[in-house]
Specification:
The structure holds 3 protein chains of 3 kinds.
Chain A lengths: L9 H9 L15 E5 L7 E7 L2 E12 L10 E6 L16 H16 L9 E3 L3 E13 L4 H15 L1 E5 L5 E10 L7 E8 L2 E4 L3 H5 L3 E7 L5 E7 L6 H18 L5
Parallel strand pairs in A: 4-6
Antiparallel strand pairs in A: 1-2, 2-3, 3-6, 5-6, 7-8, 9-10, 9-11, 11-12
Chain B lengths: L2 E2 L6 E2 L4 E4 L4 E2 L3 E4 L2 E4 L3 E6 L2 E6 L11 E10 L2 E5 L6 E4 L23 E9 L5 E4 L6 E3 L3 E4 L5 H5 L4 H10 L2 E4 L4 E5 L2 H17 L5 H13 L23
Parallel strand pairs in B: 4-8, 11-13
Antiparallel strand pairs in B: 1-3, 2-7, 3-6, 5-6, 7-8, 9-10, 9-12, 10-11, 12-13, 12-14, 15-17, 16-17
Helix pairs in contact in B: 2-3, 2-4, 3-4
Chain C lengths: L17 E5 L7 E7 L2 E12 L12 E8 L15 H14 L11 E11 L4 H15 L10 E7 L2 E4 L3 H4 L6 E9 L4 E5 L7 H30 L7
Helix pairs in contact in C: 1-2, 2-4
Classes of the chains: A alpha+beta, B alpha+beta, C alpha+beta.
Chain lengths: 262, 250, 238
């Protein structure tokens, strides 16, 4: 619930943002430090644990053989599923994915898909019959805000870490005999969610900040600075001036974050 | 033969055998199983003659009468305000304990305290069923209209407050922040944003380093370094209206 | 048939390597990481907190609620659909009953203590790893409990009794296997989890329980050390 006044309210957060000293001492344009640990799950085909401040997310890429979509017989597929599990925060309840988790899944999915980061034609095993399907799971184990951006970086890290299973003679996946092949990645589209409280724009919200956001825009950016997907969220809107500022901030921040995926 | 297996102030954990033999007696946080005294929670062992107990190092705040707490209104009922305060139980501010003002029957209670409002309150009663009554009427009790709250380890509250409030008072003087430490492990702060952050860091430092001797000096040094000036001896004048921080119980 | 040398070269009474840590998740009231062999469990405790919906609350004592979940990618082979299935629900229930007798719930009427067990990677013995992690997390949350609750699978591979079966030992080539997950409370000796897959004599079971007891004593020590390590440094000098 959002309060305009009182402790931890939008009012008090605005004061901190105006002074450019956020609750954890960061400036508005500052992302928290990121650490990525690869290979955290040897049962997945690729995995990574990403830690950003107190947000910790386990991401995994799983490869399986499936049928292509009829209208795209020579293309593999990518599917991102985020889950908000109650292990991650006091406020999260058990149950099937709610709209929050679905939005996170879809926004991460869109950023990777629309950028053409993965050449889906290379995932084809036999046209019209069998293709590789990449399933990416994004599972926060400690939620302190900004699951979309951090989860997306983690998802890319897991894909980067992945090794294809072997193929049997019948073109089914052989999980016991891995291949040496990695997923070829053409781009690493890193989203940056720019948040607005009052007139203040900032990146990488903590949970307390996230609870007070009036509007947010997730901007996925390629290595070359081109924008490849957008998602506006929050109860309020942005002015065009604010959006112009947000685009600049996102492009700059995203390019700084690229180093984590080198 | 009785035998003591631990030393005074040693960290003990559930299932750990602390002493053998019938001479020793169990107390809080320990129990007897046959000839053994065993720890039943994470704590610091205290040996009081033949009695062995442990002071808890973890766990949620359990409300005690007369504790000063920081809480938040979560619901408005016909008999008052339901509040939460970082504890397993919620509490109630009865209408009569909400304000010195006269509240007519049927008045809109949200005019006094609305959902989401924070306050400094005193626990006036804890019943056997853990029904908790809270009052915000009295000296040093009030609604909080600004600032921020942080959660600290309940078991570190006495160290954050310091002897006769000396530690928190030093942080207040150094940063110019208003600070109230609730016994329930919530700390309220209000000041210049940069100073608020320094105060929060100082509190975190106390939480993390309370076991290393020379804490006060280190916190003083930290505050002077971060603020870039010596800590003033007295509060500035505009702090005169502020209530003294109630002393922490050990 | 004798099973002389174990597939991974361990002694017959030896568990796989164990790593136990307390207090690994910042948001939780108590948490733990428990790795045994290639099985990894995280556990988080939230509570005691007020129980909603209220009709599930017990006005006499607190309620312990355990949820066991394998992450979709944590099993061998193809990814599984996320969310609870019949297996996960049953394991949640038996894990809850394994921990319940150790935990003092009298102090928390109307409250719930939620335990969430998540496994990012499993080999064998995931329910036991979950219980081991959960009991460290409960202690880390400051809950009063008689003891840690260590858990381990014991069993037979062919005619040979072994401790802590690996995935390969659960389905050995050319031999029968018996798999018996056990949890117990060391200080009282009470056995709180006991299941079995396979066929044995009653006498063989007695042998297995003795082995479980010894292995659990070792595990309990690791659990306590994990807590000691986290809280070392918290013994304030006044």
């Amino acid at each position: 619930m959002k309060n305009k006044q009182g402790p931890n309210s939008t009012g008090h957060l605005i004061t901190a943002l105006q002074a450019d000293v956020r609750y954890d001492g960061r400036t508005k344009n500052q992302f928290r430090d990121i650490q990525i640990e690869y290979g955290v799950s040897n049962t997945a085909d690729g995995s990574a644990k990403i830690t950003c401040g107190n947000t910790e997310i386990i991401c995994a890429a799983s490869l399986s053989v499936g049928s292509p979509f009829p209208d795209r017989p020579d293309e593999g597929a990518l599917m991102v599923s985020a889950e908000l599990l109650p292990i991650a925060h006091n406020d999260i309840e058990s149950g099937p994915p709610g709209i929050d988790a679905i939005e996170i899944s879809r926004v991460i999915d869109r950023g990777i898909r629309e950028s053409g980061a993965i050449d889906v034609k290379k995932l084809c095993i036999s046209e019209g019959e069998k293709v590789w399907i990449i399933s990416v799971d994004v599972v926060p184990i400690n939620h302190d805000g900004n699951i979309i951006d951090i989860g997306a970086i983690g998802a890319l890290a897991a894909i980067k870490d992945a090794v294809f299973p072997g193929l049997t003679e019948e073109n089914t996946a052989d999980y016991k005999n891995k291949s040496k092949n990695k997923i070829e990645m053409k781009h690493t589209p890193i989203p940056v969610t720019v948040c607005r409280i009052g007139d203040e724009l900032f990146v990488d919200p903590t949970k307390v900040e996230e609870n007070n956001i009036e509007a947010r825009i997730t901007i996925a950016v390629l290595e070359n600075g081109k924008i490849c997907s957008l998602q506006k969220g929050g109860d309020e809107g942005f002015s065009t001036e604010q959006l112009a500022q947000a685009f600049d901030l996102a492009v700059k921040t995203s390019q700084e974050l690229q180093q984590h995926l080198l | 033969m009785s035998e003591l297996l631990i030393q005074e102030r040693e960290i003990v954990v559930p299932g750990q055998i602390l002493a053998k033999g019938m001479e020793y007696l169990p107390s809080h946080g320990t129990y007897r199983k046959d000839e053994q005294i065993i720890a039943s929670r994470v704590g610091v062992a205290i040996i009081d003659g033949k009695v062995i107990r442990s002071i808890p190092l973890a766990g949620k705040y359990l409300p005690k009468r007369n504790d000063i707490i920081i809480g938040k209104v979560i619901d408005i009922l016909s008999m008052g305000w339901r509040v939460e305060f970082n504890s397993p139980y919620s509490g109630l501010i009865p209408i009569k304990d909400g304000t010195f003002e006269f509240i007519p029957r049927g008045a809109d209670l949200s005019r006094y305290f609305d959902i989401g409002d924070y306050f400094v309150g005193r626990i006036t009663n804890v019943s056997g069923q853990n029904l908790v009554d809270v009052s915000v009427k009295g000296q040093g009790l009030y609604k909080l209209r600004d600032g921020r709250t942080i959660k600290v380890n309940t078991n570190k509250v006495p160290r954050i407050i310091g002897k006769k409030g000396s530690m928190v008072s030093m942080i207040k003087r150094a940063t110019g922040c208003k600070i109230t430490v609730g016994q329930n492990g919530l700390v309220w702060l209000l000041g210049e944003p940069a100073m608020e952050f320094i105060a929060v860091q100082a509190i975190r430092k106390i939480e993390e380093e309370s076991h290393i001797p020379g804490l006060t000096d280190r916190v003083k040094e930290f505050l002077e370094e971060k603020t870039g000036q010596p800590i003033p001896e007295h509060h500035s004048q505009n702090d005169d209206d502020e209530e003294e921080q109630p002393e922490g119980e050990q | 048939m004798q099973y002389k040398k174990r597939y991974d070269g361990r002694g017959h009474d030896e568990t796989r390597p164990i790593i136990a840590k307390a207090g690994v998740l910042q948001n939780a009231d108590g948490s733990a990481y428990f790795k045994i062999g290639e099985t990894i469990a995280y556990a988080a405790v939230y509570g005691p907190r007020e129980m909603y919906p209220r009709r599930l609350a017990d006005p006499k004592r607190g309620v312990l609620r355990v949820n066991y979940n394998m992450m979709p990618f944590s099993g061998p082979g193809e990814r599984n659909r996320p969310g609870p299935n019949r297996r996960a629900k049953e394991i949640s229930m038996v894990s809850e009953k394994a921990l319940l007798p150790a935990v003092d719930l009298e102090k928390y009427p109307n409250c719930v203590i939620d335990v969430f067990i998540e496994l990012p990677q499993t080999d064998a013995g995931s329910r036991c790893a979950g219980i081991c992690a959960a009991s460290i997390a409960l202690a880390d949350a400051g809950i009063t409990m008689q003891d840690m609750v260590p858990a381990i699978a014991v069993g037979y591979v062919g005619d040979t009794p072994v401790v802590d079966l690996s995935y390969d030992e659960e389905q050995p080539e050319g031999m029968e296997a018996v798999d018996v997950p056990v949890a117990l409370i060391p200080s009282t000796g009470e056995i709180t989890l006991l299941q079995m897959d396979g066929i044995v004599d009653a006498e063989q079971l007695n042998t297995l329980l003795e082995k479980a007891k010894d292995a659990c004593a070792v595990i309990a020590q690791k659990q306590r050390e994990a807590l000691q390590e986290k809280y070392l440094g918290d013994a304030d000098e006044e």
